[in-house]
TrEMBL record:
The keyword Transmembrane does not apply. Belongs to the short-chain dehydrogenases/reductases (SDR) family. It comes from Dactylosporangium sucinum. It holds the Pfam family adh_short_C2. InterPro entries: KR_dom, NAD(P)-bd_dom_sf, Sc_DH/Rdtase_CS, SDR_DHRS6-like, SDR_fam. This is Short-chain dehydrogenase. GO terms for molecular function: oxidoreductase activity.
Length: 244
């Protein structure tokens, strides 16, 4: 018997990086998994692929309904889709602040609101939100991104308190700099991406980037029955960044 046998899961941003690693691990451990993403063209037949933009109110409602129809239930929600933003507080204009908040904060809220009715019917309901070490470590040139990820910590605590009596757990992970397509895209802009990757790794307390499967492992722990007594927590997977 596998840990997630009989359970159905949604992973937003599941077509890449941390989300894809999590979708794979959940499936390996017995879950039926729906991948929700902007582009699901490359998603294999082992997943239910649902095209979804988390900034689209009606689109999110329809995507969650499609998962319930397709998988027959919903137990686990990995609320992971997010985008980056660089710069100090004045670097981005207010339209950009609204755009990133719309994905990173309101996207998570939309998916939560659409999923809660189905989660109430699950005996194993669990949501895991992907925050970031940027929520608790003062990183330079990350004002907008950090604000969105800090809000997710508060949302996690509030939702955990609101829904614990309904049997729904809500936790979050706070990854450090992780080796995903997102970070590879940033590195590709450097004159020497290989040297830049090595330098970035050397700046982490553990001397390397965090891997997507390592973050997925933490997410699956929080999503599944092994953490049945845990709600309203943040699990850093950041190579020691909190110790800086
Ligand atoms: P990634 O770019 O590899 O994957 C993100 C996925 O989210 C992509 O498939 C993208 O298409 C999808 N996505 C983006 N906007 C979307 C939208 N509006 N609707 C639906 N899907 C959308 O990035 P990643 O590194 O795997 O990041 C995943 C999460 O982890 C993000 O929330 C990010 O903030 C967080 N995180 C990443 C790092 C890191 O260093 N990589 C560190 C801390 C936190």
């Amino acid at each position: 018997m596998k840990e997630f046998d009989g359970l159905a899961a949604i992973v937003t941003g599941g077509a890449s990086g941390i989300g894809l690693a999590t979708a794979r691990l959940l499936a390996e451990r017995g879950a039926r998994v729906a991948v929700l993403d902007l582009n699901v063209d490359g998603i294999g037949p082992e997943f239910l692929a649902v095209q979804c933009d988390v900034t689209d109110d009606a689109g999110v409602t329809a995507a969650v309904a499609a998962v319930e129809r397709g998988l027959g239930r919903l137990d686990v929600v990995i609320n992971n889709a997010g985008i980056g933003a660089q710069g100090a507080v004045e670097a981005n204009d207010l339209d950009e602040w609204r755009r990133v908040l719309d994905v990173n904060l309101l996207g998570v809220v939309r998916v939560a609101r659409a999923s809660l009715p189905a989660l109430r019917a699950s005996p194993a309901a669990s949501m895991v939100i992907t925050s970031s070490m940027a929520a608790t470590v003062g990183l330079p040139q990350r004002a907008l991104y950090s604000a969105t990820k800090g809000a997710l910590l508060s949302l996690t605590l509030a939702m955990a308190a609101d829904h614990v009596h309904e049997g729904i757990r809500v936790n979050c992970v706070a990854p450090g700099t992780a080796d995903t397509p997102w970070v590879q895209r940033l590195l590709a802009r450097a004159a020497d991406p290989v040297a830049e990757l090595a330098a970035l790794g050397a700046r982490q307390p553990i001397g390397r980037l965090v891997s997507a499967p390592e973050v997925a492992e933490a997410i699956c722990y929080l999503a599944g029955p092994r953490s049945a007594s845990t709600t309203g927590t943040v699990l850093p997977v950041d190579g020691g960044a909190q110790s800086l």
